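Aryl-alcohol dehydrogenase-like predicted oxidoreductase: structure tokens wanted.
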Amino acid sequence: MTDLRAALPVRDRGGYRQSALVLGGAQLDGAYGIANTTGGPSDAAAAALLRTAADCGVTHVDTARAYGESERRIGESGSGLRTITKVAPLGAVASGESSLANAVTASVARSAEHLGEPLTILLHRAADALAVGGAAWKTLRRYAESGLAERVGVSVQSPAELRAVLRLPGLGYVQLPCNVLDRRWLAADLADLLAERPDLVVTVRSVYLQGLLAAGRMVRWPHLDPAVRNTVVDTLDRVALELGRADRADLCMAYVLGLPWVTSVVVGADTEAQVRANAALASRSPLSEAERAHVLSVLPHVPLELLDPSRWTP
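Answer:
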């Protein structure tokens, strides 16, 4: 049983305050995640999820132009949550400076129509920030300089992309995928680079690896032998008990929130009960450095193909 009495922490990064849990907005458009069994929500159900998150102390919801009806539903919900959104992916845009700048401007304008201002605005891909001498990034940065955006940043997929975007002037926010199985982000140079940026908001997605870690044996794990999957699940369950955690999900959440450079985790939900459960877990004390080291010492290594959902096949 999770402790529902604890208050959800709010963390400050250079005056930007964000709760330890951010509600993921991909599910507000439709079924998302390999373990989803409920399908996409109605407008009324989406609004209820958002209001429940606000009631639990969540400060922000994370969405994107690419998430279909998500922005509209957030804007119409009246939840009072502040919004982080992502510019529509720019891969199909002609690679000229003016065309990239125009695409960013048009995407932000459409987001603002639904969500109002100010927003936290990210480029959806690191490649979008680095293309054509950073043309899209220069355009996005003007929103922060003018006060129309609270922060601007980039969503990255890999440590190499993080190293690249950390060089961008005016970077205030990064979103990246990390979980208890993903050791790539523990490289010493990354720890040093992030320690130099205490003002940087680092929000982590994929804490449950799109639901695999919470679902355990109930679903097939891509690119992993079932025997290894069972070992991972059994180990997480055993260590959760050893460390006094409520369950495997609690351990996974506490591991990521214990990383010294993490501001928040972004986790979606299909039901109001899931929102409350995730808020309760994010309210608990994170793992200590020694506890995180113990978890890593007993977990088996897994292939990169499992850690990167873009490599999963139906």
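Residues 1-5, 31-36 have pLDDT under 50 and may be disordered. The chain is about 40% helix and 15% strand.

Cheers.
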